[in-house]
Each structure stands twice: as C-alpha cells, then as structure tokens.
Amino acid sequence: MRFDIDLYSDNLMLPVETLQANKMAPQVISRILRLRDIYNYMLRNPLKKDREYIDYIQASYTGSDGKPLSKRKAYEDIEILHAIIGNLQQCSKEWHRWRFNNMIMEGYAIALRKEDAAAIAKLARQYGKYNQLDKEDEHDRGYGEIPKIVFTFDVSAMGFQPIANLQHVIEELEAHFSHSFYNRMVEDADVVELTDAVTEKEKQVAKQIANNADTTAIS
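Now predict its structure.
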C-alpha cells in the first residue's frame, strides 16, 4: 500500500500534544486530524456512500494550493479508514437497531413529560417486543469452555524430539536420496534389458517346441 496503515491506526486517537512530542511530521499530524474528523462524520452518517464521503472531504479540506483537496487524496483517506475500521455500511443493521431503540427512548421521554399514559404504555410494549424482553435468555451452551487451538512449529509439543541442526540433516538426506534415485534408474534399466532378453529366449523356445510338434504330427 502507498501509505503506512499502522502509523495512522496506532496514532488515530492520540492527542495532538502526544503526536508532536513523538516528533511526528506536521503533514502526518494534519492527515491524522483529518482522518479523525472523517471518521466521526462516517459514524454520524453510516449509510452514506463513499462518493458522499469524498464530497464531504473535498468540501471541508483544502490542499497546499488552497484548492479543495484532490480526489486522489480523499480516496486515500477513505482507503485508510476502511483498512482501520472496516466498512461501516456492513454494520448498518446494528446502527439501525441502536437508532430504533434511541427513537423509542426519545418518544418515551416526551410521553413522560406530557403524562400521556397511553403513549407510555405503547412505547414500553414496543421496546419490550423489539428487544425480546418477554423471552428467556438463551442458556449458555458452554462454548467458552472449548479449548483454543494453538498452532506451533515446536514438534516437542507432540512428543517428538527436535532434530538438532535440521537444515544440515535435510541437505544430507537430499544428497543421499538424489544419488539413490539415480542408481535406481540405472538398476531399473538393467532389469528391463534382462527381461527383454529372457522374453526373446522364451519366444524362441516356444517356436522350436511348436515346430517339433508339427514334425511329429506329419510323421
């Protein structure tokens, strides 16, 4: 990637004073502050498309020439944020759920101020139904007790004795079996030649027996 994602990921939420104390380049600090603002805008508007985020960036920020920030820079900002926080549009359903509960609570607060008993009861029922408060919580199936699988290249974990100087052993085995393979090829070729000779001799004997049988029959 053209930019260091870890640099922005590790410093995205740090105070400006800390960034300056870490002797970070001014242009990097400037971009971090811009990314922070874009991120907050994306949280407030998770359903917008990337092109709308680009419009916001260009409308809010200018380049060194005083003109709106270039689209290339704006797209780079979006690319960095997607790499750090993922695509917020994929989380929009969770956002809708949060928003719906928030709307119910806002309506509930208004109903309380107006002392509207019917609205209070209706909103309470809606809240309970949506959050399934009338249903029992799912029992813990004990998935948390399943042991974690830990991958390792240490063969002693399986009860095997590690081989000392493994690379040297590998080279020796390669040399040995490569040479053995060549020998087997030569030996196999000798067997084929010998087999061909035996087969030819068997053919001659069979032919001679057949000729003798014909001669006996004529007699």
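The helical segments are 5-11, 16-21, 26-44, 50-60, 71-85, 92-114, 117-130, 166-218.
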